[in-house]
Amino acid sequence: MSIDADGIIRSITEIVAAELGVATDTLVPDTDLRGIEGADSVRLLRVVAKVEQTWDIELEDDEVFGVSSIADLSKVVTAALQVRAA
Amino acid sequence: MTTVEPLPATEETEGARAREQGELPWAVLADYHCFGCSPHNPHGIALQFTEHPEGLATTFRLGRSYESYPGVVHGGLLGVVVDETMGNLIVMRTGRVAFTVSLRLRYLAPVTVGAAFTCVARLGRSRPGEPGTDGPLTSATAEILDADGAPAVTATATYRNVPTTIARPTAQDHPTAKEQ
Questions:
Q1: CA pair distance A43, A34, nearest whole angstrom
Q2: Hey, are the CB atoms on B108 and A46 less than 8 Å from each other?
Q3: Which of B3, B68, B81, B111 has the most neighbouring CB atoms within 10 Å?
Q4: pTM of the prediction?
């Protein structure tokens, strides 16, 4: 199964924008999630929950609390999809 | 669902009728004691379910008897809520008893004592080689939402589907059944 890394980053960016109430064009893959205005632990966990629902995956807790950017989150999603496809 | 006893043989026909009308099959029993959904268990939480466009829903308020930190509902009780809602959804869709095989929750925000929350359960997506709704295992997901629709808990679970004709002897063999 091929995994569309750009599509994952695009979708995560949209999820982050929706959950944190910011415009997508203010976000880039390296944006520090905790540095976004309005970001708090609850909202960031809701981002994670939405990501898990979107791709029907379960992320490990150490991955969830270890990511700091959209690119980081994209990497753990990609890894989870690769495990599922294996 | 772990807390519901299988339906006695004499009630099976009535149970099937109840399912067709959107009720749980054991709702016909006068004294079922499911901790999650029975109105007859004084220690239970007596959840009531309604059909939802995407599955099954229940709206609940849990009081201080179910408190963890002050003002916050104990997370274990929320496990009961999601398990009940997913398990009952499967029972109503398949007509089989659903025993919990695995259950995983992600807690996003505190669930406040005394406030109204709604749990919505959906049947899981089925992928080749993974639990669907036509094999011995069924997967489901659930969310607990606050009054504004913001998620406080998400959950995924897998259930083993057991026909009542098979589940019934299992329960009858249970030591507590012989004491009754």
A1: 10
A2: yes
A3: B81
A4: 0.82
